[in-house]
Amino acid sequence: xxxxxxxxxxxxxxxxxxxxxxxxxxxxxxxASTDFCGDFLNPTGLAQKVHNIKPDVIINAAAYTAVxxxxxxxxxxxxxxxxxxxxxxxxxHVVGACLIHFSTDYIFNGSGTKAWTETDTPAPLSxxxxxxxxxxxxxxxxxxxxxxxxxxxxxxxxxxxxxxTMLRLAKERDTLSVINDQIGxxxxxxxxxxxxxxxxxxxxxxxxxxxxxxxxxxxxxxxHGYAQHVFAQARxxxxxxxxxxxxxxxxxxxxxxxxxxxxxxxxxxxxKLKSIMSVYLPDWQxxxxxxxxxxx
Length: 296
Ligand code: NDP
Hints:
binds NADPH dihydro-nicotinamide-adenine-dinucleotide phosphate
């Protein structure tokens, strides 16, 4: 089996390089690939690469993920997160490839307290969310065999993430104010990558599994709860922080204005994935603890 991984150097892409390697011949493209076109600002070039490589499976881990910047860089956000996936899926159709794609809880408006299901109506609050929705819609209507995984609050040991930022600030300050009214589940890029590899095997065995799946770690927390957990765990690992878990002050989203309105309710109902793909989703703390063990 020939697999083409796009966006290979992002959080998820990097973990996919590991998890996909045993499945077959893996070709990785990133923006930095000079010999191949990996630039999502050039959808035509990307499609041409798919025609040339003729993979069995395309895995797209690239997206315009600078959510605040997307508000002022609208054209690029749509090209990368909507037009490029549309061009890729058209090419996938021609060469007969399956497509694996990632989307986000930001396609929802974050209202209510119920976990979002795959059939709930999207209503993005931001350019990032709207561009991601347009990308997944182009794939959904294509007829191509596909898996679209909507996830939330992704972290990885590699690159920057919320936990690392909090740890840096906690070494400098006695107290920190962190948002307590956005609710979701921190989800490891390694978990996403492992379930993607599992999903590809399942999709190859049964094309009827095509569709959208919500995929996040089990349980839920707020950014405040996440920060407290990180500090408590860091302390257990012997890291000296000025700001202790009990000194993290809860603030509402309204006290921390950003260019975009972030969804308050990012809960994802993952029961479809669990029942159809027979996967177990571990509690979010397990993956976060593992990541902390790795970076501290
Ligand atoms: P990252 O920001 O870590 O990675 C995104 C990747 O996209 C990077 O490798 C980046 O390349 C690449 N990319 C961006 N613009 C271009 C471009 N013009 N040409 C080629 N590559 C480009 O994101 P994640 O790994 O966290 O995200 C993976 C998927 O998960 C995305 O679809 C995202 O929307 C989704 N998701 C992410 C969440 C999160 O909290 N991060 C939450 C929910 C969903 P480069 O390395 O060169 O910058």
